[in-house]
Task: inverse folding
């Protein structure tokens, strides 16, 4: 017979799991494989943080869910459940099936009532997940068969009913992208480019960024791998500043005035020598390579500069 743990024991495990994931992911920077996630131990024994078959993990010792999972979707494919961002700037997580009384849906509802932190394992590759933590379930929309998810620090914000409502919505949307969508976008891009700078092949994760080909505020600036480039911080800054450009056929160009400039070895060897060279790293899958139309948008802007 399984004994339900006390609220304190459950809270302790949640806190330990989040601390462990923070350490294993370089403070939330990196993704983990399923095998790595399964290495978590509690009381010297393995303790599963993510369910291998189900999207919702409720340990038998718990009164509510511990984690949720979103499956990886290759470019052009559909997920069995589509989690989306609402007009309020908060993301939604779909029920399991359409039965509100399903045990997994009840476990999410209980987590919402208990206001406990959950871990969201977001698939960014085959058996590869970006853990997002902590997240909180703050409401349920039964007609749409989904829960409303907020990130840390936002779980108690409620509608003001005043003119500042739109300001709050923008803030919530920005925070959701910062804490959920941007880290997921980074992990997808890093996986596609094998954690290497596309321009110079640098492979130190902490020195790499997931750059947007066209910025996320652009009407086509979606957080998709085809709108992404893995760039080291120097080349990311150069790309955004219009010092480096990338042609639709994936060749690097350097702005003319920079080519004429005389400076130290970093400019000479780190920037100027790249002119008219192909990208050093491109995704193996053609479906994940940069979108030529998006490259054209940025390249025309680069040429105009």
Result:
């Amino acid at each position: 017979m399984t004994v339900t743990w006390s609220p304190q024991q459950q809270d302790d495990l949640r806190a330990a799991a989040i601390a462990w994931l923070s350490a294993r992911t370089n403070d939330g920077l990196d993704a983990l494989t399923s095998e790595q996630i399964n290495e978590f131990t509690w009381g010297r024994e393995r303790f599963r943080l993510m369910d291998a078959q189900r999207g919702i993990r409720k340990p038998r010792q718990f009164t509510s869910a511990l984690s949720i999972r979103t499956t990886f979707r290759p470019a052009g494919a559909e997920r069995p459940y589509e989690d989306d961002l609402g007009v309020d700037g908060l993301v939604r997580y779909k029920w399991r099936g359409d039965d509100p009384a399903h045990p997994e849906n009840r476990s999410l509802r209980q987590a919402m009532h208990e206001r406990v932190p959950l871990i969201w394992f977001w698939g960014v590759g085959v058996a590869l997940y970006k853990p997002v933590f902590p997240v909180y379930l703050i409401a349920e929309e039964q007609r749409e068969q989904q829960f409303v998810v907020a990130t840390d620090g936002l779980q108690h914000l409620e509608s003001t009913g005043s003119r500042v409502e739109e300001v709050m919505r923008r803030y919530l949307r920005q925070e959701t992208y910062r804490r959920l969508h941007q880290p997921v976008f980074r992990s997808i891009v890093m996986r596609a480019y094998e954690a290497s700078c596309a321009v110079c092949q640098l492979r130190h994760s902490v020195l790499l960024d997931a750059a947007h080909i066209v910025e996320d505020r652009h009407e086509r600036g979606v957080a998709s791998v085809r709108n992404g480039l893995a760039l080291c911080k120097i080349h990311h800054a150069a790309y955004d500043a219009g010092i480096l450009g990338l042609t639709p056929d994936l060749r690097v160009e350097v702005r003319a005035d920079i080519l004429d400039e005389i400076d130290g070895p970093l400019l000479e060897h780190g920037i100027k020598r790249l002119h008219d060279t192909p990208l050093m790293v491109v995704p193996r899958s053609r479906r994940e390579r940069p979108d030529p139309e998006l490259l054209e948008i940025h390249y025309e802007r680069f040429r105009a500069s």
Summary: The first strand starts at residue 32 and ends at 33.
